[in-house]
Amino acid sequence: MIHIGLHGASGKMGSEIIANLKGLNNAKLSVAYTIEPMSVDDGVIVTDKYDVLFDNSDVVIDFSIASASINLINYARTNPKPLVIGTTGLGDEGMELIKLASSTMPILQATNMSLGIAVLNRLTQMASRVLSEFDIEIVEMHHRNKIDAPSGTALTLGEHAAKGRNLNLSNVKVSGRDGIVGARSKDEIAIMALRGGDIVGRHRVGFYNDGEYIELNHTATSRATFAKGAIKAGIWLADKEPKLYTIYDALGI
Fold it and tell me: Where does the Dihydrodipicolinate reductase N-terminal domain start and stop, copy by copy (predicted)?
């Protein structure tokens, strides 16, 4: 039985992970970290202390906000524990911190935990390489309360598109157009964000050429798909050696 600690337990994703852990025969929620009052099942520890979180778990799953996630990783650097990081918007500083911390503990970091998105990333890279003359435009849609834009998933899709053409995304990314911006450049990879309502997540990667185009789409209809992926990743990661892992490692694709 894998004892899972949940960082950011009172959030929307935290609630989904708690719900999807119920009834599993190989993993259970042992401790919930939150700074807000919340109720959980009997036997689950609720805490706002990192030492309690780490001492009562085999692996910690993090779905919080960027600043809280960075605090968690910094604590783990001197108190190693397998970490699944699903928080987005960490920026270059956060990603460098994850790479540094993974030298002393296993860390799996992913901007999206769904199997469908993992496959979409692979397809995007392949299509980008094969359709080398096509323009690439990525559009993502999320609920009104999402605080980072573009989404981490969209940026990861952009990275795979850029990799397919041996480009650095930071050199070719466009995330907004307004006014007289001129013609589109050949290497440009646009990533546009839309926000509204309660949309769980929609991502479209379009490859456009004269006379034809191809669009790859993924729509999440429930946060449960991300929760199940995160739990699967946590169970898989619990006994791994220190290293930075990807969702592809956990899913075996």
Answer: 2-113
| 201-209 and 135-142 strand pairing | antiparallel
Q: How far is CA 33 from CA 131, 178, 220, 252, in A?
A: 46, 42, 26, 29
- pLDDT tens digits, 47-101: 999 999 999 999 999 999 999 999 999 999 999 999 999 998 898 999 999 999 9
pTM of the model: 0.83
Under a CB-based contact definition with an 8 Å cutoff, are residues 53 and 31 in contact? yes
Residue 228 identity (one-letter amino acid)? K
Q: From 225, 227, 249, select the one nearest 237 (Cα to Cα).
A: 249
Q: Which of 175, 226, 242, 241 is nearest to 62 (CA)?
A: 226
- Residues annotated as catalytic are 142, 146
Q: Cα–Cα distance between 87 and 95 in angstroms, integer?
A: 11
Report the binding-site residues for (S)-2,3,4,5-tetrahydrodipicolinate: 143, 152-153
Binding-site residues sit at 8-13, 42, 86-88, 110-113, 143, 152-153
- Total length of the chain: 253
- The alpha carbons of the chain give a radius of gyration, in whole angstroms, of 19
CA distance 163 to 209: 20
- If pLDDT is split at 50, 70 and 90, which confidence band does 39 have? confident
